[in-house]
From TrEMBL:
Keyword Transferase included in the entry's annotation: yes
Domain GST C-terminal span(s) in chain numbering: 81-207
GO biological process: glutathione metabolic process; toxin catabolic process
Protein name, as recorded: glutathione transferase
Family matches, as PROSITE patterns: GST_CTER (PS50405), GST_NTER (PS50404)
Family the entry assigns: Belongs to the GST superfamily.
GO cellular component terms, semicolon-separated: cytoplasm
UniProt keyword annotation of Transferase present: yes
Cited Gene3D superfamilies: 1.20.1050.10, Glutaredoxin (3.40.30.10)
Keywords: Transferase
Highest taxon in the source lineage: Eukaryota
Uppermost EC category: transferase
Length: 219
């Protein structure tokens, strides 16, 4: 994964799964040969990493592939110790299982009880607040001194956290309730590997409104 022409990412600018892959590539110092395609992140199976023309699918698998292929460049994304790796993988899957579906309900994209969806997000944040203390061990990120696997997975949803707060009128990232996570979120978004790939809140709000209209029209 050495030259720019070898690596392409097919994804959507608003897609958290594409955002985490793009940030992982930046962490490892890999330049993409083309910008993320403005595909609809709801209807298409994205992202896809093309390395020497060979496709790798599913964002978590892509991140682990990047970490292994680019092992000598940049900080390690996954911990070296097996138990620590297992813990980060567990919480990463928890994030995608609990937060992403709830956001789709709160955006009005999926049918469901919005109060239950909001409660699900709040419960997830409570667990992640505790997980951060254990994983970080007093350091800035879940991965320790540097952004790691769980940072990328949870952090890729931060743009939508802010957008959903605006759409649903609910404050999730409250510094009094979740002091560790809110401080971590600010650090993550300001990181040089992240700040250029994190979408603006108002743009996501507009995108969500348009996507919801199209979804209802097709049903």
């Amino acid at each position: 994964m050495a030259s720019d022409g070898e690596v392409r990412v097919i994804g959507g600018w608003a897609c958290p799964y594409a955002i985490r892959v793009s940030a992982a590539l930046k962490l490892k110092g890999v330049a993409k040969s083309e910008l993320l395609l403005k595909s609809n992140p709801v209807y298409k199976k994205i992202p896809v990493l093309l390395h020497h023309g060979a496709p790798i699918c599913e964002s978590m698998i892509i991140i682990q592939y990047i970490d292994e292929v680019r092992a000598s460049n940049g900080p390690a994304i996954l911990p070296a110790e097996p138990y620590a790796r297992a813990i980060e993988r567990f919480w990463a899957q928890y994030v995608d299982d609990k937060i992403a579906p709830a956001f789709l309900v709160l955006r009005g994209f999926f049918n469901g009880d919005k109060d239950e969806a909001a409660a699900q997000v709040s419960t997830a944040l409570q667990h992640l607040e505790e997980a951060f203390v254990k994983c970080s061990q007093g350091k800035p990120y879940f991965g320790g001194d540097n952004i790691g696997f769980l940072d990328l997975v949870l952090g890729s949803h931060l743009g939508w956290f802010k957008a959903v707060e605006k759409i649903a009128g609910i404050k999730f990232l409250d510094e009094d309730t979740y002091p560790q996570i809110t401080e971590w979120a600010d650090r993550f978004c300001a990181h040089q590997a992240v700040k250029d790939v994190m979408p603006e809140t108002d743009r996501l709000v507009e995108f969500s409104a348009n996507a919801a209209v199209k979804s209802k029209a097709s049903n």
